[in-house]
């Protein structure tokens, strides 16, 4: 596997906006997620996308959380979606959501969504409407629920990103958790035509036709609630900025991990919070 070291990063620089760029051309991200039990997770994803340089971010979430989230983050737009009896986003033909898909460059589905079946229902509604050249990222429950969606996702080959932890990967691939490793990540990449970030003590980044990349890890402190939501936002924000999907995943993993290292160095190996990661992403971006 290829390490995400200084040499790799120098050979794969992030695109930088010109002085004439406005917020629309700097990349637009849509985050779809949240539920009654975890209404704030989408804010971590949204902030991370902004911190890595995306120009605009919108969050689509349950109606009960939309206004509080919009007030907490005045930098973003919000879309209020119906809620089912279990507190998850309900599948609907929401005109505002469908219209938004035509104006975004990257879509992240899954942060804060607890039930794979509910997340998969949203993927079924959104995936066929992803515009040409837009990126779709599936995280958390959306990955775990995608194991039967091969035909639906196949048109997105080359534009699909999956960010599972080992349990979600086992659900996706229908294998025991103890079988999950780099080889399974590569199998998933080929099966779905996706860039796959298998999160763990060492994160493996697999692509269908490239040697896997690896990042040694940002430390045990990153194993905390909301950390994966931050990573999803960092990757989506970079992808929206015209970074290739593989490079967006690799840079997102590196930025997220190095932010964890910085917090561990300054505050201790465990006990820092996921919401403390996004501001550090900006300081770690190449200048």
Keyword list:
UDP-N-acetylmuramoyl-L-alanine:D-glutamate ligase, 287 residues, alpha/beta, globular, ten-stranded mixed sheet, 10 strands
Overview of the structural elements:
- The protein has a single domain, classed as UDP-N-acetylmuramoyl-L-alanine:D-glutamate ligase.
- The protein has a 10-stranded mixed sheet, sandwiched between helices.
- It is α/β, with parallel strands linked by helices and 287 residues long.
- The two termini are 27 Å apart.
- Strand 5, helix 5 and strand 6 form a beta-alpha-beta unit.
- The model has no long low-confidence stretch (mean pLDDT 94).
- The protein contains 12 helices and 10 strands.
Summarize the structure.
By secondary structure, the protein is an alpha/beta fold. The chain has helices at 6-11, 41-51, 63-72, 95-100, 116-126, 141-144, 150-153, 166-173, 182-192, 227-240, 245-267, 278-284; strands at 2-3, 28-32, 56-62, 77-81, 106-109, 135-139, 160-163, 194-198, 203-207, 210-215.
For the CA atoms, what is the radius of gyration? Answer: 17 Å
Structure summary, number of beta strands: 10
Question: Uncertain regions: pLDDT < 50 for 5+ in a row?
Answer: none
Distance between the termini: 27 Å
> What is the general shape?
globular
The class by helix and strand makeup works out as alpha/beta
Topology-level CATH name: UDP-N-acetylmuramoyl-L-alanine:D-glutamate ligase
- Kindly report the spatial arrangement of strands forming the biggest sheet: 1-10-9-8-7-6-5-2-3-4
CATH architecture name: 3-Layer(aba) Sandwich
């Amino acid at each position: 596997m290829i390490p995400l070291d200084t040499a790799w990063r120098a050979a794969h620089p992030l695109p930088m906006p010109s002085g004439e760029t406005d917020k629309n051309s700097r990349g637009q991200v849509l985050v779809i997620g949240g539920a009654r039990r975890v209404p704030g997770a989408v804010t971590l994803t949204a902030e991370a996308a902004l911190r890595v340089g995306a120009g605009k971010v919108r969050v689509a979430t349950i109606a009960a959380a939309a206004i509080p989230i919009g007030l907490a983050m005045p930098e973003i737009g919000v879309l209020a979606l119906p809620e089912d009896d279990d507190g998850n986003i309900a599948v609907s033909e929401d005109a505002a959501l469908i219209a938004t898909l035509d104006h975004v460059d990257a879509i992240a589905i899954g942060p804060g969504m607890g039930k794979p079946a509910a997340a998969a229902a949203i993927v079924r509604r959104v995936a066929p409407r992803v515009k040409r050249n837009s990126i779709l990222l599936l995280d958390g429950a959306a990955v775990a629920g995608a194991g039967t969606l091969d035909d639906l996702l196949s048109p997105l080959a080359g534009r699909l990103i999956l960010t599972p932890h080992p349990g979600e990967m086992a659900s996706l691939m229908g294998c025991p958790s103890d079988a999950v490793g780099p080889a399974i990540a590569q199998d998933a990449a080929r099966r779905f035509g996706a860039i796959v970030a298998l999160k763990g003590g060492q994160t493996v980044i697999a692509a269908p036709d490239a040697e896997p990349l690896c990042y040694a890890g940002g430390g045990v402190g990153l194993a905390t609630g909301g950390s994966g939501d931050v990573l999803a936002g960092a990757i989506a924000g970079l992808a929206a900025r015209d970074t290739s999907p593989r490079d967006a995943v690799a840079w997102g993993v590196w930025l997220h991990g190095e932010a964890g290292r910085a917090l561990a160095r300054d505050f201790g190996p465990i006990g820092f919070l996921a919401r403390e990661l996004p501001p550090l992403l900006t300081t770690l971006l190449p200048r």
